Each structure stands twice: as C-alpha cells, then as structure tokens.
Amino acid sequence: MAQFRMPSLGADMDEGTVLEWLVRPGQRVEKGDIVAVVDTAKAAVDVECFDSGVVESILVPVGEKVPVGTPLAVIGAGEARPPEPTAQAPATAPEPVAAPEPEPVAEPERKTEPERNRTEPEPAAAAPQRARATPPVRALARQAGIDLATVRGTGPAGTVTHADIERLLAPRRGRISPYARKLARELGVDVSTLPGTVHASDVRVAAAGNRPAAEPATKTATKTAAEAAAVEPRRRGEDMRAAIATLMERSKREIPHYYLSSTIDLEAALTWLREYNRDSGIADRVLPNALLLKATALAAARVGELNGHWLDGEFRPGERVRLGVAVSLRGGGLLVPTLDEPDSQPLDELMRTLTDMVSRTRSGRLRSSELRPATITVTNLGDLGAESVQGVIYPPQVALVGFGAIVRRPWAVGELLGVRPVVTASLAADHRATDGATGSRFLAALDTVLQRPEGLR
C-alpha cells in the first residue's frame, strides 16, 4: 500500500491546493495516470500517479490547501470496484410518498386507463408529479439540468435512482472535470462550445478570450463575465510574481554567483541544420533553439560538476541531465518545465517534445512530471532581441545557461575576415560548487559540440 502525496513542483513550492480529483475510491490507476489537479502559486498542474494499484481512499478533499509531502490518497493492491451505490439503498424509501402521486390523476379515469397509456398527452403535462425519485436524486438532477420526466427509472416501480442520473452524467464527466464545470459556471462559459476533454485551463482561456456579443442586450452580461474572468489571471499573476520574487531573493542571498560568457560561431551548425531540414515540411523543421538545448545538455553531461544540486552544504551530481527550460508566459511571469535526458534524444524528437511542452506551459496544462527539479536550466531571450543574458540560478541548482539572439557579426577565420552568425552564451554558476576554470571548460565544451553539429543528430 502506498500513499500518494502532495508533490514538490519546484523549489518555490511549500504548499498546494487540491483543485479536483480525476479518480474515485475503488478505481484502478496505472503509473503515469493523471489523478488530480493541484494549484500552486504559479499554475494549476495535472498531477500524475507514481504507483499502480487501486485508489483505496482520498484523504484531502477538493479545495483544501496542504503542505508539500502531505498524503492525499491511499493506493493499494486490491481489485477495482464499481462506484459506491450511495443513493440506491434509499431508492425504495420514497415508495409510500411517491406511490400516491399518480393516483389523483388516474382515479377519475380508471376505466379509460388503456387509452391514456396509448396517447400519454396528460401524463407528459404532469411529469413532475409522476417522476418517482428521492429528494437527493431530484436535487442531483436539478443541479445537472436533467428533466426527470425524460429518465427511465430502474428502481422499484420505475423510481429514478442515483445510478440512473450518474449514468446520464457519465458522458459529460468524461468531457469535463467537476472543477472545470464549476469554474465555467462562475465565468459564464458555455462548455458545449469547447472541443475535446475540457480542463480548467480551457475554461479560463475561453473566458478571457474575445467572445463577441450577438445582441446589444447581452453586452452587459458579456462584460460581467469578462470582468469575472479577469480576476483569476490577475490573482495568478500576483501570486506568480510573489513566488518568483521569493525564490530570486533566496538565490541571490544564498548563492555566490560568478559569470562567464563566450561568443560562439554558428556558421557550421546553421549550415548543417539547413541541410538537415531540407526534406522536412515546415511543421517538422528543427529550429536553432532545439540545437542549442541539445548542445547544452551534451556539455552538461561532459562537465558534470555543473549538473546537479547544492544540498546540505555539498554538491550532489545529477544521475542524468534534466534540463530546465525557462518559458515566458503571455500574461507575465515564467515557468520552468523540465526535459528529461535531452542529451540522448534524437533532435527531431526533442523538437517535437519542446514544441508540445512550451504550448502546454503557456496554456496551463503541464504535468507534474514536467516540473520535477531540473539539474541545470537554460534561458533563451534571443527571440526578444537580447544579445546576452546574465541569469539568476534556480536553487538548488548550481548553474544556469543563457543564450541571446543569433546575430551576424564580423568574424575572423584564420587570416580571413567575414560576416558570420554568432550567439553569446553566458554561464551563471555557484562558486560554492565550482570555480571559473570549471565554468570555462563548460563553455568550451558547448562551443566544441556546436562546431561539430553532426553529433547533435
């Protein structure tokens, strides 16, 4: 039996809030399944399970904030079981109450009963009285917008049971989680217009988007929904800014940074990349950013003194390269998802992984496994025009690599002067773990890898 705990999704996370459960007690889960959505100061994250088994119990309800490491659920090795039939036992209880309901209507017409059964116009009008259901089942149907008159009851004498309503709700719940449905109601979003499986992030995007008002009469309602939708991103932005501030203060307070930089000739790398992309479609082409990330991962594998964490007063090398990629968010702030062993990934696969991960980062659909601690981080501000980047190390890591824009500059090769594409690579490193000589070896290794780009394939 294993405990599923509130995960640590970064050095700046001390606690998290359970936004929704995607599993129920008795349900079987496999390692890697997404079982819950957890809210951190920076994002709502899909949390994966790291054990296979059956959910024995859920310990923390939706909406509760708990510290990192708190048990959230218990996963055992038993057999999966169906949902608890919570309302089926009392389904027979309403018989004395529900049975008399049709009698006032049927009593005067007893002799014409067969004809009434054929035409059924009057029972349709009296459907609210004829539908047999317990008060909890009626409340559930009302909340879900289900007309009990349209439900074929499977209980005694046609009573509509809790299971009947759950059966009708099952397809909906496959499309949208309870939290996302609640959020959609609050923000005025029609979930029927959203394609595929709907997450809370999809609802936020829809609420914040430009939804045209079809008629002047709806402008006020649209404005109100938009204003309500703006509260969530604003709060998220404030929380994220505070989390980043706390972490960066800690980094500068605790870590003695040193900085090195090197300008690298990319003529060979970009020429090789053009040839590599020659027969690829536009969507399948590898961009220079993927080339720089893989080169960084290979350099980190060669100079392992910069690949790891400073913990309890000592450096602990990483068992493999886990490369953090700083991703700026459209509403401000940033997240640092992690690429696992990019040094061993084929370049085209790395490009696809990177594209997908950046897209999900910006739409708020990251998985918890993608926020596990990186061993070294890369930030690239070249697309924003910066030519060099002096970053701040993300504790407990001991190094951060920054890339600026690829620019064309005069460059001497041997005795010849020409114009070449170059990039400035900078290194911020922890002086407790390494000295400048180690940092210089890392930048030299990075340069060497990029001068022999065929090794990046």
UniProtKB/TrEMBL annotation:
Q: Name one Pfam family in it.
A: Biotin_lipoyl
Describe the location of the Lipoyl-binding domain by residue ranges. Answer: 1-76
Record's keyword terms, sorted? Acyltransferase, Lipoyl, Pyruvate, Transferase
Reading the lineage from the top rank, the first entry is Bacteria
Q: Where is the Peripheral subunit-binding (PSBD) domain?
A: 132-169
Q: Which cofactor does it need?
A: (R)-lipoate
Enumerate the Gene3D superfamilies for this protein.
2.40.50.100, Chloramphenicol acetyltransferase-like domain, E3-binding domain
**Where do the record's region annotations for Disordered lie?**
77-135
Q: Which InterPro entries match?
A: 2-oxoacid_DH_actylTfrase (IPR001078), 2-oxoacid_DH_E2_comp (IPR050743), Biotin_lipoyl (IPR000089), CAT-like_dom_sf (IPR023213), E3-bd_dom_sf (IPR036625), PSBD (IPR004167), Single_hybrid_motif (IPR011053)
Q: What residue range is the signal peptide? A: none
A GO cellular component annotation in the UniProt record: cytoplasm
Q: Which GO terms describe its molecular function?
A: acetyltransferase activity; lipoic acid binding
Task: Name the residue ranges with Basic and acidic residues bias.
Answer: 107-121
Question: Which residue intervals are annotated with compositional bias (Low complexity) in the record?
Answer: 86-96, 122-135
| EC code(s) of this entry | 2.3.1.-
Q: Which family does it belong to?
A: Belongs to the 2-oxoacid dehydrogenase family.
> Which PANTHER family would you find in this protein's record?
DIHYDROLIPOAMIDE ACETYLTRANSFERASE COMPONENT OF PYRUVATE DEHYDROGENASE COMPLEX, LIPOAMIDE ACYLTRANSFERASE COMPONENT OF BRANCHED-CHAIN ALPHA-KETO ACID DEHYDROGENASE COMPLEX, MITOCHONDRIAL
Identify this protein by name: Dihydrolipoamide acetyltransferase component of pyruvate dehydrogenase complex
